[in-house]
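hey m, so remember when u said the tokens were messed up on ur end? i reran from scratch. heres the input so u can diff it against urs
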Amino acid sequence: MRFRHEKKYIINEHTAAILRARASGVMKPDEHGGSYTVNNLYLDDRYDSFYYSSFYGRVVRDKYRFRFYNGDKSYMRLERKHKEGNVSYKDTMRISEEQYERIRAGDMSFILKEDAPLWQTLANIHRLKILRPTAIFAYNREAYIYEAGNVRFTFDSPPFDFGERVSPAFEPLIKNFGAEAYSPILLEVKFDKFLPEIIQRILNGLPLAQTNMSKYCIVRERGVLRYGNN
């Protein structure tokens, strides 16, 4: 188990372009090629415990999601993201497309018979609180890494286009950024024990609005249906 620091910032496209230019001489695209679509299915219990833990910023919280990339279901993962303040770690395991489709259809029964520790954890939660799929969505990601310091930048865009509905978490940003805050880019900076000075210089002097926003919470607030075409 290795905890990583994670800082999130709301930026606009102009700031993103500056960051890409600055990072180009130091960082390189990640192992997926730098630009791709992240497909997600999130679980929650009948009390929406995971949603409210994120919404209220509880110090210790978990999320459970199924993830694949570029719509390719040949390689899919179940992930538990555990967060304590500004540090987090992930437990992951590979799953089959059949398992994913059963979960997406709301069939949780088979997890009660699975042996893998992550499935067993979900099964225990399901017995107590009844799990179900609550959000299915995708977003575009650009990712860059600095290997020497194990640093990772990710630029995530839509589903953060709110239209007329704005999350309370974004109200201060509307005041600072105006209309650009309605379709922002979420920059995530992830690193181990410290952020190398060379990376700090890349970030210096830019209008970075730090946030604790959760993509899962934002999607839930927009009223995304439980089932979709993901």
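this time it looks ok to me. The longest helix spans residues 117-129. if urs says something different then somethings off w ur setup not the seq
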